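User: I'll paste a sequence; please echo it back and then give the predicted structure.

Assistant: Echoing your sequence first, then the prediction.
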Amino acid sequence: MTYHFPKPKSRTEAQVDFRQPTKEDGSEVWKLVAACPPLDQNSMYMNVVQCDHFADTCVIAERDGKMLGWISGHIPPESSDTLFIWQVAVHSDARGLGLGKKMLRELVARDTCRNVRQMETTITRSNEASWGLFRSFARDMNGKLSDAPHYECEAHLDGRHATEHLVTISLPRKALRMVA
């Protein structure tokens, strides 16, 4: 899917293309995530596997061959109506253009997500950018957002990482039809 920003005012608002990743994209995804603190950086191998095994539920945003955005996600085997978003990365050159939300819309519009009725992700309380993105997406989709502690600092993360809150967004069928 290709989006065209209305009347580009600058180079940063030019055409952005969205596509599924391939395993060849793994190292560039890894570099993008490294350039987007406070995101946790996983191994390059893991990003290659995500691009290869989960391409249907991951998206790359690029302009003129430069990777500007990445979302990794998957549909959990025990929850076929749920799209779990693992990570959202937007390059500093593309921040403020709504790219994160456009990538989320691209994902829920895919045939792979035809049975998806809710989106989940985990977010630490301090990650204001992610909270803003998912609250805005829920509003745009007329969805209901709820959250609760899920991966707790002491119980699950050996006190080495802030508690991750499970954020759930209901995705009404009508809103999903409008995206597709």
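The helical segments are 26-34, 44-53, 99-109, 128-140, 153-157, 173-179. The first helix runs from residue 26 to 34.
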